[in-house]
Amino acid sequence: QVQLEESGGGLVQAGGSLRLSCVTSGRTFSGYPVAWYRQAPGKQRELVATITSGGSTNFADSVKGRFTISRDNTKNTVYLQMNSLKPEDTAVYYCRVQPYWGQGTQVTVSS
To answer: 90 and 40 in contact (C-beta within 8 Å)?
Structure first.
């Protein structure tokens, strides 16, 4: 059974940084694209960033230039580095390897 486990969320002041991690188990994930999504209270879940098996990345316009995504296939881990955080980045962040979802990690950015 495939499991995804996110970590690294927390409370940070505006302008600060956090690094989220998504560790996968139960399947070799090196050949699969991985995505980070987020969902703020009262809003729909939205795609934040993706990384292909070859390392190509894509980002939502709202986070371009501030977030980076990377993967370490030897550790079955994908990272989301979030810099220059804004209060509007506050959300639960989820890792996805189709069709699986992690349980999410809360990110709260105070103003």
So the answer is: yes
Query: If pLDDT is split at 50, 70 and 90, which confidence band does 30 have?
Result: confident
Please report the DSSP string for 8-53 in residue order.
--EEEETT--EEEEEEEESS--TTS-EEEEEE-TTS--EEEEEE-T
In angstroms, the CA 15 to CA 91 distance is 16
Q: What does the alpha-carbon distance between residue 94 and residue 73 come to, in Å, rounded to a whole number?
A: 19
pLDDT (tens digit, 9 = 90+) per residue, 9-25? 999 999 999 999 999 98
Pairing of strands 46-51, 34-39: antiparallel
The label of the residue with tokens 């209060």 reads 87
Per-residue pLDDT tens over the stretch 99-111: 999 999 999 999 9
